[in-house]
């Protein structure tokens, strides 16, 4: 049993059921601010479901999700202190890298020159300086995920959720992206939860592994 924590994410006696299913999922754990935790478990165990609950895309049957002692239940997804990166479909095909990242600052793309500088810095942070005007179709798979990561950064949310973000990439590229995530996590002091089914990836960068069973 954990005591209530003041700094970090606390998932307490959370239960959930997809409306069309019988299975009930239960989660109970906590993650400290600044920790990078890997969520491991077999296919169908509920890893993505857990991230959807934390992000606010699904509503639990019972239990609480608190950040720094504050219950997030009443906050819609856009107002939660959370940014997410998924395996794919992170970018809009008709927008440049710069504008895709800019959506993280202003959804109507009303961007000041300071915002443009912030976007340039984020592109630099993910190793894509000068790629501002590229369309997603003009980028490799790894570069597209870097752009999506840059958008996560400009949102300046303290919690980063990663749902198998690099599983479509080959092993060498995946390792490179994991290193990048680790660096960004440290540099931006993000509480990071990374869902993966690969224990090697978890061992590579995680401070701790939570195994769902
Ligand atoms: N929207 C949904 N409606 C109904 N059932 C769902 C829905 N999303 C997921 N499920 C079911 O809930 C269970 C958990 O799914 P989830 O995607 O969370 O698992 P996972 O651990 O992330 O799996 P994987 O590693 O294959 O991505 C599965 O049995 C899945 O079929």
TrEMBL record:
Annotated ABC transporter domain residues: 9-212
Taxonomic source organism: Kiloniella antarctica
SUPFAM superfamilies, A to Z: P-loop containing nucleoside triphosphate hydrolases
Pfam families to which the protein is assigned, alphabetical: ABC_tran (PF00005)
Keywords, ordered alphabetically: ATP-binding, Cell inner membrane, Cell membrane, Membrane, Nucleotide-binding, Translocase, Transport
Protein name according to UniProt: Thiamine ABC transporter ATP-binding protein
GO molecular function, a single term: ATP binding
Taxonomic superkingdom: Bacteria
Key word ATP-binding present: yes
